[in-house]
Every structure is written in structure tokens, then in C-alpha cells.
Design brief:
The longest helix is centred in the C-terminal third of the chain and has 24 residues, at 674-697. The protein contains 29 helices and 32 strands. Among the domains are: 314-455, Neutral Protease, domain 2; 461-549, Aminopeptidase N, middle-beta domain (Immunoglobulin-like), CATH 2.60.40.1840; 745-879, Alpha Horseshoe (Zincin-like fold). Helix 4 packs across helix 5, helix 14 crosses helix 18 (674-697) and helix 18 packs antiparallel against helix 19. The chain has 879 residues and is of the alpha+beta class. It is 41% helix and 21% strand. Residues 231-450 form the Peptidase M1 membrane alanine aminopeptidase domain.
Length: 879
């Protein structure tokens, strides 16, 4: 299973248990940015189930000073980065292994292992970062008990944190001090963490349902303490929810969150010591938008829920990554829905989650990096922290809940934790536990077939045809799945299809759940007086593409009458996509019809619909989603058509947008609750459309109002919505507004990320965005080594602005290639993520397709590429 060389492909089928177990780990760190000393004392024993063989320990960029076995020096050799020990004690008795190494955290730009950021120490060990700290069996199925002693200069690093419970601390000679931590739970090395630095914390003591007291702490830099209240409240809500919903209590005396501005990921669930990107901790109404507040709640919940689904029960190997990530994404989605409360707010959250899936995961399923939820092979595991493993994995868990019911799923999850607590297991083990707790359920009866969701890549397609005759209505559903790399033929999936029938009077006449197991199945309803309109895949009951040739009249009927909020939203999406595709495939011109405009007006003016739902319905489908419906894509044409549709929607409904803005712009004292956030979202959408309409008409009133709103806003959501309206509409006031925004927030890193991203993601007018991006790379506040800043500018252009990125002169591709190569020398994980921007190059129209291939080949030709980038570009070029 473990790699033997830099370019070795690792296969799930090759998994072998470790030849040795590590029972205890005693680590002592003498922290110094230039040279940190790490003394690692382990209790090791042979695995009697594996034939005797040398002990091979993983390492990466370490300086080895000493190796002792049972206190005595021993011979060793190096195989690449691995430390190989052959002359070890025979028999099954444990032996002591002591390894002394040094590393250079200040030079660690990869941000994996132990590194420094803003004069503090942090770690990131998932997936394979612990080997950059000490030599170890760096694999998730090796679980040990950890004792950690940290020593450092007390003035420079007054806070010393690690996993578990603080058992001792004190002063040392020469102005140094120490802290000793013991983790009461065995864990794999990827969950190890330490933090040291100048930090302050917000504390909260809580008492759990079970009556136990716990200390919750959120650590940040001194100037950020006032932005931690929402993160703390989210953590408290997470602890309460997990115990109430699933009976899973907090199992530690204290639980800590630490925020850093240099972090490759969103956050990391290290046992008891979660390390977060500041983006998902810091929030105040002056600096964070409603979306930021909601994301913090979700991510704090996600990492806390890992305490059980990932930490107490972990992955046997990295192919099982969705065991913890898919399950925990599902859990954080349920958490956010439950906190939203009312049905409409829950529906908005569901739609937002599906929108991410369809705009990001469906294209991944159709591209060169397509892989099953449980991959079969990888060159670099960091490349498989994907929307397939996370978001599609969550949908696979959600389907299991659908098939056994909410109560049945809770029973199954209890069975899973009872059966596997303290173990490293597989996706099969999870599905088996859910099924075993629900005998006779659709899941239990079709378990082996259901598990194809874990093993087969690609997005299944469900085609629906209907027939109405003599009062009988039939819906015939046929499933298929297109070929993906390495998987030409696919077997039928288990697909739960929630459905309903809407009668001519708008009332529901029938409904149910069809659990598909065959290639073709038919739903039949008798005794109908007139032909109904089918409402299929309600609530997005399965992650599939629904192929249903609905008429405009049917979609308009669903938009007006469907009781399922998801399908109501979906009807509006289909109406918009249909009009865009007709224009893209035709002359490129689009003229909106009265029926569509009136439907949009009716939604906007509807007296009973929530503002948040209205905003979702009236937001046009994303360019990436529209492009996925085409066999060949000209991104500039897609962009032009979408902009034209938006301009017509803005002008035709100008009076309605003005009403919506005035009706929703004032919300009293700022609160990031769902109702208030929905009102601000709709007001922001209205203001954007009003500024777009003003551009066409030459009106200066609404851009002036937007600029005034920008200056006077009492919260970041309203301020940024106004700024965005000016930038998106291309009004001349956008430049002074952008300059003013930068002046107001030059000391707020997360706010400046928004400033960079807004400019890089702006609509392209005559090729103006790339020059702006190049100029911003020279800005004093831009830093390529900071992942957040790189993502805010470069990714916003290359990955999120297709109309500007895919230029006829290929300058966008040249820029992409230069940045991938530049980032690869600094931080391969970030570089590989950027490399994914070209995944769908084969769909491009010429001459863009040839130019894109040439750019990818230029990157692939570099001889010393990291595994991270090499895997992405090699798969992109593969036939």
C-alpha cells in the first residue's frame, strides 16, 4: 500500500495490514523556527498476522540525528525518504524505538507537517504530513496513544497546545517554558497537532446533557478576539446538536479551536485541537458577510462532528476517505438544516448544497479526474480531497438515510459507533452497520447493489418518459451511466426517486418513492380525470441527472404550484437553461418571452415565499452548469448569452426590482439569521439588476444609490453587495468604490481577499480582466505564498471566471501555466488545485481546445513537477 518511489501509483487492491503496530508515542519538541528538535520515543511491536519483515518508517525533509532500539544504537539504511530498520528484536514483545530528528519549520512553504505562520507554530498532518515531523508509520490504520511535551521561549511562544488534556506545565531555564499534553484516546498520526505562539482565547464552560463539564476555547491572534463570538456560538450549538440528534457526547475535558491565516484547507479535525483557516473562524458584522457567518457555522460543525465520525472511528486507508468526509459533510448539512428550523429555510440550504454538487462535482464526474467515491488508485492522496469524496459522498450517506428513514439511520449510526469505536474501518463497514440496524429495509435488501455508489464513478442519468391514457398515468424511468476513465461499463445503481403528480388545478394528486434497482422501471397511477404534471426527483433524492423533456407549460406549472421547494427552484433553472442553450446553439441572440418574464415577476412579487428562496430562483444558472449541458463549449459565447439574459431580466423587471430593493433593504440591527440574511440577499440581487439595467438605459440614479449604500452600510453584507453591483454592472463608480473599500479594510486580510476576488471574477468586457489580475499580482497586499490570497485572485480568475479565462488569444492559459509552475515550487497542494481549472479542456471549441492542450503539455513537460501536479496534468492529457 505504501509508496516505494516518487511516482509509484498506489492501489486499493494492494492494501496490506502494517507489519508493526505502534502502541505509544512520547514526543518532545524543542521549538525553534530555524531548527526544531523532535525526540520521538515509541513502543513498537510486530504484527503477528504479517510475515516478519523490516520496519520501514516514512519521512520527508527530515534531518536524522539518532536511532536507538531498547536504548542501544542500531544499524539502519535509507530507501529514498524511508528509514529502514532490519535488526530488530524477534518475537511479539514490544520494544522501545527512539528517533531524534530536526526540521526547519520556517522554510516549510508546503504548510504540511510543522510550519510557522505570523511568528507562531502550527501543524497540518492530514493526509501525510506527520512524516515531515518525525519518522513514523504514517498511515491511518496505525493508532497510538500520544504524550507530547512542548518546550519553547516563553516570551515568544507563551501558548503551547497539543491534543488532549494539559497535565503539566512550568518554567525552564533561559526564559523557556514547557507544557505536557496527554491524549486519552488512541489516534492515527494524521490527527496529531501542536500550536505555539502569541495567541489569546475566548473561553466558555458548558455542561453537556450527560452532566459533564467541558471547557471550550477559541484561540486567535490578539487583534482578532472580537471576531470569535460567532465561532464559539457555533461550537456550542454543534456540541448540543450532536448529543441531541445522534447521542454523541463530547469526550474530552476541553475542546480547542485555533485560527491561522496560512492554511491549505478550510480546517482540520485534529483530536481536541482543531486548526482552522481564519476564513472559517473570524466574523463580525463589519468584516464578514451573511455567507461567511453561515460557512463558519457549517465548518465549525463539520470539524466538531469529526470528533466521532473520523476520530473515534477512522479510515483503514486513504481510499476510504469518504468514510469520514462524506459522512461528516452529511452531518454538517443536517446540522445547518436543523438550525435553520422552518421548512422553507431547510429547503434553501438543500438547494444551496445541490447547487455546489451540480456546478462542481458533476463536471468532475465527467472529466479526466473522475473517480469513485471510494477511489481505486492514486499517485498523490492530496488530489483526492475532492467534491466527489466530500459532496457526492454526503449524497450517498443521505440516500442511506432515505432508504432506512431518519430514525432508522440514527439506529444505524449508533450501531456503527458501537461496533467500531476505536477502530480504523472501511466504507463497507459503515454501510453494513446501517443495513444491519434496519433489516428488511430497501438498503438491507439491496446492500451489495447499493455499494456500487462507492465503486462506480460518473453521474448516473435517469431518463423519464410519460404516457396518459384512459385515466392511467405512467412514468417510465430508465437509468444509465456514461463511461469514465478506467470504467467503461456500469451496472445499475440503487436510485431512490421521490415523485409526485400535480393536477390541473395545482393540487397534488399522487406521490411516493420509487427505489430503482433495475435498468428500467415504471410508476403507474390509475383513476385520474386529467393528465397531471410529474414532479420528479423531489428534494434531489439522488445525485443523478434527470433527463425529462418537459414542456415550458409543465415547468411553469411546477414553478407556480409544486409543493416541493427543490423542484420549484429546479423548474426555474430549467426554464433559464433552455433559453440560454437555444441561443448558444443558435444565433447567439436571446429575447426573453413574456411567459418566462411573468413567471419571474410572479416569484419576485409572491407574498408568501421567503426572500431567500426568491433570491435562489431568480439567480440564473451558473456558466459552468450551462456549459456542462453542451457537447462543445465556447465559454465566451456562454458568458455573452448569460449576460444578455441577465440584462433583459434586469430591464424588463426594473420596476419589480426597485420594489424588491426598497421592500427588503432595511432589516434593523444586524443579525445573521436566515430570515434577515435572505432579505439582504434579495435586496443585493435587486440592486445588482438595477445597476445592470441602468447601464443599458444610461440612468445614473441607481448606480448613485448603490454607491451611497456602499458608503453608508452598517454591515459587510450590504456594503459588499453594493460594491459588487457597481463592479458587475461595469459602472465608472466601481473604481472609486474599490479604492475606498481597500482604504477602509487594508488591515483586514479576509476582507482584502474579497476585494481581490471581486475584481478577478468580474464580467469580462473586451478582455479587461486578465490585465487587472496581472496588475493585482504586483499589489503590495498580494502574497502568492498565502493560500487564501492566491485563491482569492488566481483561482477566482482561472477557475471561477470562464468567460474571462478562456480567451481566443490563449493568454489566460499561458497565465495559468505560469502560475501552476510557480506555485508548484512553493506549495504543491495549492498548485494541483489550480491545475484542475483545465480539467474540461476537451469540451472546448477550437482554437481554445488546442491552445489549452498545449498549455497543459507545457506544464507536464517540466521534469521536477510534484506528484500533486503531475497526476492532475497527466490524467488531463491521457487519451
Amino acid at each position: 500500500m505504501l509508496r516505494e518511489g516518487q511516482n509509484a501509483v498506489i492501489y486499493r487492491a494492494d492494501y496490506q495490514p502494517p507489519a508493526y503496530w505502534i502502541d505509544t508515542v512520547d514526543l518532545c519538541f524543542d521549538l525553534d523556527p530555524a531548527k526544531t528538535r523532535v525526540l520521538n520515543k515509541m513502543k513498537v511491536r510486530r504484527n503477528p498476522q504479517v510475515a516478519p519483515q523490516p520496519l520501514k518508517l516514512d519521512g520527508d525533509e527530515l534531518n536524522l540525528a539518532r536511532v536507538l532500539v531498547n536504548g542501544q544504537g542500531t544499524s539502519f539504511k535509507m530507501e529514498g525518504d524511508r528509514l529502514v530498520l532490519e535488526n530488530l528484536p524477534e518475537g511479539d514483545a514490544p520494544f522501545d524505538l527512539e528517533i531524534f530528528t530536526t526540521c526547519a519549520p520556517a522554510k516549510n512553504s508546503k504548510l504540511m507537517g510543522l510550519y510557522t505562520s505570523n511568528d507562531s507554530f502550527f501543524t497540518q498532518c492530514e493526509a501525510e504530513g506527520f512524516r515531515r515531523i518525525t519518522y513514523f508509520l504514517d498511515r491511518p490504520d496505525v493508532m497510538a496513544s500520544y504524550t507530547v511535551t512542548l518546550r519553547a521561549d516563553k516570551q515568544k511562544y507563551p501558548v503551547l497546545l497539543s491534543n488532549g488534556n494539559l497535565v503539566d506545565q512550568g518554567d525552564l531555564d533561559d526564559g523557556r517554558h514547557f507544557a505536557k499534553w496527554v491524549d486519552p484516546h488512541r489516534k492515527p498520526s494524521y490527527l496529531f497537532a501542536l500550536v505555539a505562539g502569541q495567541l489569546v482565547c475566548r473561553e466558555q464552560k458548558i455542561t453537556s446533557r450527560s452532566g459533564n463539564d467541558h471547557l471550550l476555547q477559541v484561540y486567535v491572534r490578539a487583534g482578532d478576539l472580537d471576531k470569535t463570538e460567532h465561532a464559539m456560538n457555533s461550537l456550542i450549538a454543534s456540541v448540543a446538536w450532536d448529543e441531541a440528534r445522534f447521542g454523541l457526547p463530547l469526550d474530552l475535558e476541553r475542546f480547542m479551536i485555533v485560527a491561522t491565516s496560512d492554511f491549505n484547507m478550510g480546517a482540520m479535525e485534529n483530536k481536541g485541537l482543531n486548526i482552522f483557516n481564519t476564513k472559517y473562524v473570524l466574523a463580525s458584522q463589519a468584516t464578514a458577510t451573511d455567507t461567511d457567518f453561515m460557512n463558519i457555522e457549517s465548518v465549525v460543525g463539520h470539524e466538531y462532528f469529526h470528533n466521532w465520525s473520523g476520530n473515534r472511528v477512522t479510515c483503514r486507508d486513504w481510499f476510504q476517505l469518504s468514510l469520514k468526509e462524506g459522512l461528516t459533510v452529511f452531518r454538517d448539512q443536517e446540522f445547518s438544516q436543523d438550525l435553520a428550523g422552518e421548512a422553507s429555510a431547510r429547503a434553501v440550504k438543500r438547494i444551496e448544497d445541490v447547487r455546489v454538487l451540480r456546478t462542481a462535482q458533476f463536471p468532475e464526474d465527467a472529466g479526466p479526474m473522475a473517480h469513485p467515491v471510494r477511489p481505486e488508485q492514486y499517485l498523490e492522496i492530496n488530489n483526492f480531497y475532492t467534491v466527489t469524496v466530500y459532496e457526492k459522498g454526503a449524497e450517498v450517506v443521505r440516500m442511506q438515510q432515505t432508504l432506512v428513514g431518519r430514525e432508522g439511520f440514527e439506529k444505524g449510526l449508533a450501531q456503527y459507533f458501537q461496533r467500531h469505536d476505536g477502530q480504523a474501518v472501511t466504507c463497507d463497514d459503515f454501510a453494513q452497520a446501517i443495513a444491519d440496524a434496519n433489516p428488511g429495509s430497501h438498503l438491507a435488501n439491496n446492500l451489495e447493489q447499493f455499494k456500487r455508489w462507492y465503486s462506480q464513478a460518473g453521474t448516473p442519468r435517469v431518463k423519464a418518459t410519460t404516457r396518459f391514457e384512459n385515466g392511467t398515468y405512467e412514468i417510465t424511468l430508465s437509468q444509465s451511466c456514461p463511461p469514465t476513465p478506467g470504467q467503461a461499463a456500469k451496472e445499475p445503481f440503487v436510485i431512490p426517486v421521490a415523485w409526485g403528480l400535480v393536477g390541473a388545478d395545482g393540487r397534488e394528486v399522487a406521490g411516493g418513492m420509487q427505489v430503482m434497482t433495475q435498468a428500467t422501471e415504471t410508476i403507474r397511477v390509475d383513476g385520474l380525470a386529467s393528465e397531471p404534471v410529474p414532479s420528479l426527483l423531489r428534494g434531489f433524492s439522488a445525485p443523478v441527472v434527470l433527463e425529462w423533456d418537459a414542456t415550458d407549460a409543465q415547468l411553469l406549472a411546477l414553478l407556480e404550484h409544486d409543493t416541493d421547494p427543490f423542484n420549484r427552484w429546479e423548474a426555474a433553472q430549467r426554464l433559464g437553461v433552455r433559453r440560454m442553450l437555444d441561443a448558444i446553439r443558435g444565433s447567439g441572440a436571446i429575447t426573453l418571452d413574456d411567459a418566462y418574464l411573468q413567471a419571474m415577476r410572479s416569484i419576485l412579487r409572491h407574498p408568501k415565499l421567503d426572500a431567500a428562496f426568491k433570491e435562489l430562483v431568480l439567480t440564473l444558472p451558473a456558466e459552468t452548469y450551462v456549459s456542462e449541458q453542451l457537447d462543445e463549449v465556447d465559454p465566451q459565447r456562454v458568458h455573452a448569452v448569460r449576460e444578455s439574459l441577465r440584462e433583459q431580466l434586469a430591464s424588463a423587471l426594473a420596476g419589480d426590482w426597485a420594489w424588491a430593493y426598497e421592500e427588503h433593504k432595511e432589516n434593523g440591527a444586524y443579525r445573521p439569521d436566515h430570515v434577515s440574511a435572505g432579505r439582504r440577499a434579495l435586496a443585493g440581487l435587486a440592486l445588482t439588476h438595477l445597476c445592470i439595467a441602468a447601464r443599458s438605459s444610461g440612468d445614473t440614479v441607481w448606480p448613485g444609490k448603490a454607491y451611497q449604500r456602499f458608503k453608508d452600510a452598517s454591515n459587510m453584507t450590504d456594503r459588499f453587495n453594493a460594491l459588487s453591483a457597481l463592479v458587475v454592472s461595469g459602472h465608472e463608480l466601481s473604481r472609486p468604490a474599490l479604492d475606498r473599500f481597500h482604504g477602509m479594510f487594508r488591515g483586514e486580510a479576509l476582507v482584502l481577499d474579497k476585494w481581490f476576488a471581486l475584481q478577478a471574477g468580474a464580467p469580462d468586457r473586451g478582455g479587461n480582466v486578465l490585465p487587472v489580475v496581472r496588475s493585482l499580482m504586483q499589489h503590495p497586499d498580494f502574497n502568492l505564498r498565502n493560500p487564501n490570497r492566491a485563491r482569492s485572485l488566481i483561482f477566482s480568475y482561472c477557475s471561477a471566471n470562464p468567460g474571462a479565462f478562456h480567451r481566443a488569444d490563449a493568454a489566460g492559459y499561458v497565465f495559468w501555466g505560469d502560475r501552476v509552475l510557480e506555485l508548484d515550487g512553493v506549495n504543491p497542494q495549492v498548485a494541483a488545485r489550480l491545475a484542475r481549472a483545465m480539467d474540461r479542456w476537451r469540451k472546448l471549441a477550437e482554437p481554445m481546445r488546442s491552445a489549452a492542450r498545449e498549455a497543459i503539455a507545457r506544464v507536464a513537460a517540466k521534469p521536477d513537477l510534484s506528484n500533486d501536479v503531475r497526476e492532475v496534468v497527466t490524467r488531463a492529457l491521457a487519451d
